[in-house]
């Protein structure tokens, strides 16, 4: 198993993060620098005997995901075991982004935390303000290497979360909105001004620039994906080097034809037939269903 420590000849650069993890871009170290305040805020290490830094082949084409120091976040070994045992067997191998376990040392994590803190001080950097002050867990012993699905000079990548592809089992009878759209409508239609009483605008139509997950797997030809909804996916896909306008028809056709989204929907139903109000949170199938409702879909 690959081990990453303070002497590993790589640089890591902040890419993105969620509530539980931070994702870094991994590149080869070009120079040996021991100063923590290096310009690109990377991690540096030793070079080879000929003085040329080289990156381990297992790191090429990978991003590095590290766990945050948050009490509710599951340790990497446990979450990776759950992925291998309960998620991976459900899908064709070629439909999953590869995930490789690696070991990390406390010194390596400290270097990454230092890079995060520097990221927070630079107004031009990418770390959102709401994430400031939350560091990586220095007690964590493992990280995950994931295949880099970002857009590059020759390929464009679309990235989005399908969310709940089936109606919530606990939704009221006759509900016209799926869980995702109902949640968005609630947030849109309630005024959050502290000086104004909260008044839901009940007659207001849901915004068209949000994608309704149910349209992705609907067999009803009237349930088309609104062009604005598709546009919202394309705009949020980071770093795409091409204009997607000419590909909208092909993309919508893919969404309606791929069996992968319908498989994802069927698994969500199978793993949680009772709904989130009637389940034991420690139930493995329920945890799997919730993971499937929060997964990220890549189209490259």
Q: What are the salient characteristics of this protein?
A:
300 residues; 6-stranded mixed β-sheet; two-stranded antiparallel sheet; 8 helices; 8 strands; 28% helix
Overall description:
The protein is α+β, with helices and mostly antiparallel strands. Helices cover 28% and strands 14% of the residues. The protein has eight helices and eight strands, in the order E-E-E-E-H-E-H-E-E-H-H-H-H-H-H-E. It has helices at 76-87, 106-121, 179-189, 213-216, 227-236, 248-257, 259-271, 284-292, and strands at residues 3-4, 10-17, 21-28, 62-67, 99-104, 142-147, 158-160, 297-299. The strands form two sheets. Strands 1-5-6-4-3-2 form a six-stranded mixed beta sheet, sandwiched between helices. Strands 7-8 form a two-stranded antiparallel sheet. Strand 2 and strand 3 (21-28) form a beta hairpin. It is globular and about 60 Å long.
């Amino acid at each position: 198993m690959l081990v990453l420590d303070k002497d590993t000849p790589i640089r890591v650069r902040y890419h993105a993060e969620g509530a539980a993890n931070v994702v870094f871009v991994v590149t080869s170290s070009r120079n040996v620098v021991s100063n923590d305040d290096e310009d690109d805020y990377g991690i540096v290490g030793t070079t080879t005997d000929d003085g040329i830094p080289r990156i381990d082949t297992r790191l090429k084409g990978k991003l590095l995901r590290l766990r945050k120091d948050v009490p509710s976040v599951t340790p990497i070994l446990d979450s990776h075991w759950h992925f291998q045992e309960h998620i991976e067997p459900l899908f064709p191998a070629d439909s999953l982004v590869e995930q490789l376990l690696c070991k990390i040392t406390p010194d390596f994590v400290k270097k990454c935390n230092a890079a995060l803190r520097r990221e927070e001080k630079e107004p031009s950097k990418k770390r959102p303000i709401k994430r400031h002050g939350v560091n990586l867990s220095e007690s964590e012993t493992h990280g995950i290497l994931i295949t880099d699905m970002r857009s590059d000079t020759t390929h464009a990548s679309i990235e989005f979360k399908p969310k709940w592809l089936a109606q919530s089992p606990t939704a009221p009878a006759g509900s016209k909105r799926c869980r995702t759209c109902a949640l968005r409508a609630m947030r849109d239609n309630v005024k959050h001004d502290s000086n104004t009483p909260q008044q839901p605008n009940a007659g207001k139509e849901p915004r068209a620039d949000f994608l309704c997950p149910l349209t992705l797997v609907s067999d009803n030809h009237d349930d088309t994906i609104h062009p604005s909804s598709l546009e919202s996916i394309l705009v949020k896909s980071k770093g795409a080097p091409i204009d997607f306008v000419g590909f909208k028809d092909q993309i919508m056709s893919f969404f309606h034809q791929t069996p992968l989204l319908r498989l994802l929907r069927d698994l969500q139903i199978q793993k949680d037939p009772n709904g989130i109000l009637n389940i034991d949170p420690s139930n493995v199938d329920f945890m799997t269903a919730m993971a499937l409702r929060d997964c990220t879909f890549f189209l490259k």
